[in-house]
Write a structure and sequence with these properties.
Helix content is 70%, strand content 9%. With 138 residues, the protein is mainly alpha-helical. The protein has a domain of 44 residues. α2 crosses α3.
């Protein structure tokens, strides 16, 4: 019987991108299960208060606020840097190579917003079309 490869060997064989995707998938599944099985503890976790202070300066925030206000800002900053890099020195330096992703991203923003306005117009909520656009990258 051949020896089973170690976990480290399996991780190395899968590659970094696949490991990241697998971890994201597992974390998402765990969060969905946790939120649906024990919503009280899930909500309580995100409302945990954190306080950081030096002398008279203190910051008091929840984990939910930390993710929304700090980590999401870092995420979108990183996305912006990656896009800028691709246009400057990456795969999208020429218009012919950038045309399809640019058109797709514009359509990815415009089509959901247009559909939202068409569907929400009768109820008077069409002004909320920006919510559809702002969640596209995330």
């Amino acid at each position: 019987m051949p020896a089973r490869p170690s976990i480290a060997a399996r991780i190395s064989a899968m590659g970094q991108n696949r490991i990241g995707a697998l971890l994201l998938l597992l974390a998402t599944a765990a969060a969905i299960a946790w939120a649906n099985l024990s919503s009280g503890s899930y909500s309580g976790f995100w409302e945990t208060h954190l306080t950081v202070g030096v002398a008279d300066l203190t910051l008091d925030f929840t984990l939910h606020a930390l993710v929304n206000d700090a980590l999401m800002a870092i995420f979108f900053f990183t996305v912006g840097l990656e896009v800028r890099r691709e246009f400057a020195i990456g795969e999208l330096t020429s218009w012919s190579r950038a045309m399809v992703p640019v058109i797709a991203s514009i359509a990815g923003l415009a089509v959901p917003a247009l559909l939202f306005v068409l569907i929400a117009a009768p109820s008077g909520h069409a002004a909320a079309w920006g919510v559809v656009i702002s969640t596209d990258t995330a």
